[in-house]
Model the fold of this input.
Amino acid sequence: MHQAQKENALVIGLITLLFSVAGCSSNPVIEHADRSLSPKQIDTDSTLPEQKLEWGGIVIAITNLAESSEVEILAYPLDERGKPMTESSSIGRFIATQPGYLEAGDYPSGRMVTATGQISAVRSGRVGEAEYVFPVMHCDQLALWPKQQESRAKPRIRFGFGASSGGSSYGSIGIGFGF
Done:
């Protein structure tokens, strides 16, 4: 290979590496389960579903008990990755139970979560002054989504153009963009 071909191959390799690293994410890995039932569809008169379910939403409140923790969640439909789509209408509320202690600071009100598990009970409760029926999910997994970043008014994309002689008679031109 000529020197120019080697340099081109190196540049292409570096660009490929940069794009593959940029594609990495800190999103949780969600164990997918049945999404055909929503929390609103489970009530005190229905038989409890036996299959594993996957629901998600935003944390309303957390309660730590002697042996377990309970997280009240306002549920939303999930996207293909299992992330709650909070711009959609709510599909009900449910209580996610997890053995042991969950740190309330890690599960603050408004934080997005996805839960996978089985419905173990239905519990009557209140939302404000209204009576409400909460499905109680015994969780195999309770995954936190990364905190939402504040959106800026302007996109953070930059574009540049440059030219240089590089000290030789051939010169060069470059185009670049960044995030």
User: Anything to note?
Assistant: The two ends are 33 Å apart (CA to CA). The longest strand covers residues 112-127.
